[in-house]
Structure formats: structure tokens, C-alpha cells
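Predict the 3D structure for this chain.
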Amino acid sequence: MKLFRQIALSAMITLSAFAAVVYSSCSKDACSGVTCSNGGTCSGGNCTCTSGWGGKHCDTADAYKFVGTYSVRETCSVSGSVGPYTATVTQSTTNQVNILLQNFGDFSATITVAGSVTGTTLTIAQQTITGYTISGSGTYNGGVITITYTVSGSNNESCTATWTKQ
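Done. Predicted structure below.
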């Protein structure tokens, strides 16, 4: 009788181990059928996007939310209050994570400044356009871009601009 119990116990342990192996090897791959674009990777059925991209499948450029026509007001260290004036943001045709800010600063000459977008953050790398050297950064929140920038040329000054989407 004791031998029978040992054989029965061994059989139950063996069957339990076999069932656990079979069950775990049959689990479905959560990333099967999930396509992550633009270098994104899938983990647990969800895409993790590379810098500059968002959306469920990493197929929406972060820059897209910035695109539009804006009413702009600025406060500058030398010029004082500027605006309101109209400016536009378009998506770059050469790199989808970049934007072009047209009529930037409402200078006498229409200036277009290039910026790069990651999530809701805007970076304006130093660039010289029609005698003005401009650099700065900003954030996008609910249709409003807040930009802090410096400009040097005939006057050197720092400005904070609020761009409100129309």
C-alpha cells in the first residue's frame, strides 16, 4: 500500500509538471499582429515609440500637433510688448519631426525658423537668418506654444512668446 501511494504521488507530480509546461508554452504572443512604425518596438502588445513619434502604432509625428495658424504675443527685454501678430507653423517636408515657424518674432523681414519636436517640447537650435541669430526652446500645451528665445543682430534681447492656436 505504501508503494502504491508513492507511485500515485510521483504520477501526480509528473502530470502537474507536464501540464504546467504545456500550458505555459501555449500562451499567445501579445505582439503578434502589432506593427510599430518608425523604429518603434512592441512589448506586451503595446508600442514604445522612438523620439519624435507617437500614437498607438508610432505612426503620428509629434510635430503634427504644432501645425496651424497662431495669434502671437511677446514680451522682450528691449522691445517690450510685441503683438498680437499672426504666425504659422508647418511640418517640414524633409523631416517629419521638424517644424517651420513662419513670421517668427514679427521682424520687419518675414523670418522662418526651424525647430525640432519631441513629445510636447520644441527646440530651436541656433540659426542665423537675415542677420538675426536666434535660438530657444518651448513647450506645447492644449493649443498654446510658449517659447523662450534669444535674438542677436542689431539688438540683443531675450523674449518670451505665447503662440495661441486659432
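The longest helix spans residues 2-25.
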